[in-house]
């Protein structure tokens, strides 16, 4: 029996690595409904994923999809060539680290409370409360940059954990995109009316999310993606986008 299983495992290992070797582009993202829904190694669907799939198909390049926690996806896109990452918020700090292909989403950031006795109207007032954040994502770093105490921030490794921490009353507040929050609230069989949108962060100017390519990706490939994105953008009405 072992003589049969071991060769099969070896063949499977080779086939997986062969798919990586043959793929022109490695796509990395995070599980973030309704923007992108997929398990590791499967084809992605969702609001932003549909656009990315259309762009990749237009380039005629082969690709493989990988869904990781945000910190790992970001690290891979920094370190390796031919890596496409999305949706990534374009900031001054990140500008030089990537080739920016095109915008795929505009985040609507807000701070929510699940306690009726919390009444704040500014970001400064939120510093007095415990806040659930998604580790190392834009909003986590934004709050740190705004002078929030790390002791008041509760970072977790994926966005669903962050939301459940908040919904279960383990923290006072959460900072999150409104459409993503509503999706998870509905999936938890709760009502969005049970929560308060306290502060809408209109002051965040870099709230547009992009498709980006790792800096070491050849310029020929970068230009191919930019041209494909332009073509697909002209057909956006045929793609389900917000």
User: How many individual helices?
Assistant: 7
Mean pLDDT: 84
Count of separate structural domains: 2
CATH architecture of the largest domain: 3-Layer(aba) Sandwich
Distance between the termini: 53 Å
CATH-defined topology of the largest domain: D-Maltodextrin-Binding Protein, domain 2
Describe the structure concisely for a colleague.
This protein has 242 residues and is of the alpha/beta class. The protein has helices spanning 2-22, 47-59, 70-79, 138-145, 159-167, 178-187, 219-233, and strands spanning 25-29, 63-67, 83-89, 98-106, 109-113, 131-134, 153-156, 173-177, 196-200, 208-214. The protein has a five-stranded mixed beta sheet, sandwiched between helices. It has a five-stranded mixed beta sheet with strand order 7-6-8-5-9.
Task: Describe the model.
By secondary structure, the protein is an alpha/beta fold. The protein has two domains: 137 residues, D-Maltodextrin-Binding Protein, domain 2; 92 residues, 3-Layer(aba) Sandwich (D-Maltodextrin-Binding Protein, domain 2). 36% of the residues lie in helices and 23% in strands. It has seven helices and ten strands. A five-stranded mixed beta sheet has the order 2-1-3-10-4, with helices on both faces. Strand 1, helix 2 and strand 2 form a beta-alpha-beta unit. The chain is elongated, with a radius of gyration of 20 Å. The N and C termini lie far apart (53 Å). 32% of the residues are buried. The N terminus is likely disordered.
